[in-house]
Amino acid sequence: MTTQKFVTLQPTGDKLPLVGFGTARISKEDTEQVVYNAIMAGNRLIDGALAYVNEAEVGKGVRRAIADGIVKREELFIVGKLWNSFHEKQHVKPIFQMTLDNYGLDYIDLYLVHLPFAIEYVDPKGPFGLTNAKNELKLIKAPMHETWRELEALVDAGLIRNIGISNFNVQLTLDLLSYARIPPSVLEIEHHPYLQQRRLIKWVRSQGVQVIAYASFGNAVFEAVPQGTEHLKNLLEHPVIVDIAEKYQLSTGQVLLVWAISHQVVVIPKTVNVSRMKSNLDINHIRLDDDDQQKIDALEANARFNDFYANNYGFDFPIYD
User: Domain NADP-dependent oxidoreductase: where (predicted)?
Assistant: First the structure.
C-alpha cells in the first residue's frame, strides 16, 4: 500500500510534501552545499529559520539548485520562521524581508511564528537567542493579534503563501483562531514516539491545521535532555525500533519517519549524508503492519526534549503547561 506524498494546506490548497529537509544545526560553512545536495537528492520541502543562523547559506544552496536547472522555484516549498525578538508589529515586515533577501526569492511558501512568546528586540544582524547578555529571559508585551495582522498583510501582498505557528498548544491556537482573518495552515511541533501529542494533533486537524514534526528522532538529536528523561533509550537504538528495522530491512531512522508519515505528520529530518538524504526520502511506499505500528505507539512517554528547563537553557519557562 502506498502512502500519499503530500498533505493539502488550507486555505490555499497548496501541497506540502510529507517528507522534507530540516536545516537546524548545520554549520554555516557546510550549509550551502548540504542544501544543494538535499535538493539534488530529491527534497522539495526545505525548513529553515532566521534563528538557525544559516538562513543566508540555505538561500545560496536553493538559488544554486534553481540556477543549475535541478529544480524550478514552483517545485520547492520553502519554510521560514519569525523569531521571538521580532514580534512587535513594526519589526515583522523588516524581519521577513531579511528572510526573503536571504533566499533571494519573490515569495516564501510558509512562514511560521517560531515560538508563542515575545522577547525584547535585538539587532537581527548580531547573535541572538532566548536570553540577553545577562542570561535573562526578557518578555515584552507584544500581542499576538498584532503580530498576526502583520503576517496577514504579507500574505495579502503576495510575499507569503501560507502562514502558521510553531510550538503552540491548544489554548494558544484557539485564541489565535478567534481573531485570525487568515487561519494558520500549519502547526510545527516536537513529535516522535516518546512525545506523540495525539490530542493536540487531533484537535488542530479538526480546525484545518496540518502538522509538521521536528525532532522526529527524539532524544537522538539533542545533546542534553531535561531532568527525568535521561533513562529513556536513544530512539535510534531502541530495541523495538531496531527489531522493526531489521524486519523491513530499513534503517531505524527510516522506521521512525515511516511511523510519523503513516499518521499524516510531515517530517523534516536533517542529515549531511547524501545517502541518508536519499533513504529518508525513499519511504513513501513502505507501510508498517498494525502490530508494528502499535509497538511504536506504545513507546509514548510524554517526554519533551525541547523544553525550557534550567539545565538546558538556564531558565525555567513552562510554556507547554
Answer: 21-300
